[in-house]
Design a protein that fits this description.
By secondary structure, this protein is an alpha/beta fold. It is built from 14 helices and twelve strands. Helix content is 44%, strand content 17%. The strands form two sheets. Strands 9-8-7-6-10-11-12 form a seven-stranded mixed sheet. A five-stranded mixed sheet has the order 1-2-4-3-5. The longest helix has 26 residues. It is globular and about 55 Å long.
């Protein structure tokens, strides 16, 4: 079987596809293809049994022409340098497409957090921030949560940074607990953004929400809230899965009951109320539905399953869930794709709101946060759709043209130092 392109090559291909349609100077193009700063660190951690293990971590700042770098840190056994670099590029375009005054960054540690005690996890987190501390700060690079990191880990990050600097600086990390000046609405932000783009897409395609069916792959933070919010808006969630399998019910599932079941059982796969049937992750993606939401990890939709996908809309709640080969197949089949750099930008938008609130020492209500999130998502969606219609291109290429154009313009105005 022919191997599909990797995540870094896919990110480069998307950039080149946009650049081919843009009238940019070659000097700008050369800079856009390169990451500004890359850092690999060794992280020695004393384990509970007294043994010292050495983990490997990364931090990549891709482009900071529009502002300080912004991006999460993921803890996962399969983290690679190429993945982190590709995701830093993705963050650059994501921040630009929704108009944030940020560049893009990403971090990662090769580890399995499920195998670490709380003490080991804390020591790993604190030492990682110490190792990357020369790169980060409220006006330099602002880390945040990502895969298998959370608000507690951000609490350790902020304390470590403040101990190192002797400051009481809270804007240097986002995704913090509310009691450490995190933002209201941050937990649900990614899902809220995804839902906004889905509602706008349904309207564009003249599909009534109360008649629409939804399938969601991935039932973590983003997936579970997307299910809940769409259900509240009258859409019927007919299929849901997590890493252990999924469930299907043509009459609709109750996302709240599913959430409580997963909290107790650790999975949705054995949920069996009201005629619900088990379904594999592979079969779930191929269900007939109006909206498919891939909310798990990368490359869930690929050349082997893309031709069997029957959804009218794909809203990418995960980063990079669709391979380039699958993208071509879906576009030919007329599937309306809401690309990841637009669909899941709600998280970084509210991280930006948290940063702004921290800098000013003044905090907003959840209602104000959600209204401002809605406004930014709607504006970005319409901007991308306008480019797609004008250029007669797919939404992903349109989103990249929108984002890359904003970054390139900032680079042009700034020029080259010295």
């Amino acid at each position: 079987m022919e191997k599909e392109v990797g995540i870094m090559e896919a990110a480069n291909n998307l950039l080149e596809k946009a650049l081919a349609r843009m009238n940019l100077e070659e000097n700008i193009k050369r800079q856009l293809r390169k990451a500004e700063k890359v850092l690999t660190v060794s992280i020695p951690v004393k384990m509970d049994n007294g043994e010292v293990k050495v983990f490997t971590g990364f931090r990549v700042q891709y482009n900071t022409a529009r502002g300080p770098a912004k991006g999460g840190v993921r803890y996962h056994p399969q983290v690679t340098f190429d993945e982190v670099k590709a995701l830093a590029a993705l963050m650059t375009w994501k921040c630009a497409v929704v108009g944030l005054p940020y560049g893009g960054a990403k971090g990662g540690i090769i580890c399995n957090p499920k195998e670490l005690s709380e003490g080991e996890l804390e020591r790993l987190s604190r030492r990682y921030i110490y190792e990357i501390s020369p790169l980060i700060g409220p006006y330099k690079d602002i880390p945040a949560p990502d895969v298998y990191t959370n608000s507690q880990i951000m609490g350790w990050y902020i304390d470590t940074y403040n101990m190192l600097t002797g400051e009481a600086s809270f804007p240097c990390i986002t995704g913090k607990p509310i009691d450490l000046w995190g933002s209201e609405g941050r937990t649900e932000a990614t899902a809220n953004g995804v839902v906004q783009t889905i509602i706008l897409s349904l309207d564009y395609l003249n599909i009534l929400p109360e008649k629409a069916t939804v399938v969601i792959q991935g039932f973590g933070n983003a997936g579970s809230y997307v299910a809940k919010f769409l259900h509240e808006r009258g859409l019927s969630v007919i299929g849901v899965s997590d890493s252990k399998g999924g469930v299907f019910n043509a009459k609709g599932l109750d996302p709240v009951a599913l959430y409580h079941h997963k909290q107790e059982a650790g999975t949705v796969s054995d949920f069996s109320r009201n005629g619900t049937e088990p379904i594999s992750n592979g079969d779930l993606l191929q269900l007939e539905c109006d909206v498919l939401v891939p909310a798990a990890l990368e490359e869930a939709i690929n050349k082997d399953n893309a031709s069997n996908i029957k959804a009218k809309i794909i809203a990418e709640a995960a980063n990079g869930p669709t391979t380039p080969e699958a993208d071509e197949i879906l576009s030919k089949n007329g599937v309306f794709i809401i690309p990841d750099i637009l669909a899941n930008a709600g998280g970084v938008i509210v991280s930006y709101f948290e940063w702004v609130q921290n800098l000013n020492g003044y905090f907003w209500s959840e209602e104000k946060v959600n209204l401002r999130l809605k406004d930014r998502m709607q504006k970005a969606f319409r901007e991308v759709l306008t480019i797609a219609q004008k250029e007669e291109i797919d939404n992903r290429t349109a989103a990249y043209i929108c984002a890359v154009g904003k970054v390139a313009q900032a680079m042009k105005y700034r020029g080259i130092w010295p």
